[in-house]
């Protein structure tokens, strides 16, 4: 198999989608958490990477919470990092 075909095949590989739940106290670790999930062979969905911290207050927080809940429903797994805040508990 040529190197091109090998790379192209890897780009089409099916992987689990994992919602990485974390408290806002661990916001600063969001990229390291995504890195960890990638290293485990899954695709991380990190709410802080999607919307920042409540979309930087540009919209009502409940709109962001609803969006997170809809994304979470479509994920294969939920991984919790760090302490369990009220928001993380709701995601669990």
Give a description of the structure.
By secondary structure, the protein is of the alpha/beta class. It has one domain. It is built from 5 helices and 3 strands. The protein has a 3-stranded parallel beta sheet with strand order 2-1-3, with helices on both faces. It is globular, with a radius of gyration of 15 Å.
General form: globular
**Mean pLDDT reading:** 89
How many β strands by DSSP? 3
Oligomer: single chain
Rounded to an integer in angstroms, the radius of gyration calculated over CA atoms is: 15 Å
The major beta sheet can be summarized as: 3 strands, parallel
Helix content: 40-55%
| Count of alpha and pi helical runs | 5
Strand content: 15-25%
Alpha-carbon distance between the two ends: 43 Å
Number of domains: 1
Which regions are unreliable across 5 or more consecutive residues at pLDDT < 50?
none
Widest sheet, order of strands: 2-1-3
What is the H/E string? HEHEHHEH
The structural class is: alpha/beta
List keywords for this structure.
92 residues, alpha/beta, 3-stranded parallel β-sheet, 5 helices, globular
In brief:
By secondary structure, the chain is of the alpha/beta class. It has five helices and three strands. Helix content is 48%, strand content 15%.
List the helices and strands and how they pair.
Blueprint: H1 3-11, E1 17-22, H2 30-39, E2 43-45, H3 47-51, H4 61-74, E3 77-81, H5 86-91
Parallel strand pairs: 1-2, 1-3
């Amino acid at each position: 198999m040529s190197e091109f075909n090998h790379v192209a095949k890897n780009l089409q590989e099916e992987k689990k989608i994992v919602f990485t739940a974390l408290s806002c106290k661990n916001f600063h670790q969001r990229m390291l958490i995504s890195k960890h999930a990638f290293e485990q062979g899954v695709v991380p969905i990190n709410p802080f990477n999607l919307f920042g911290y409540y979309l930087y207050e540009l919209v009502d927080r409940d709109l962001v919470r609803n969006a997170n809940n809809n994304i979470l429903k479509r994920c294969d797994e939920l991984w919790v990092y760090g302490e369990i805040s009220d928001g993380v508990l709701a995601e669990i």
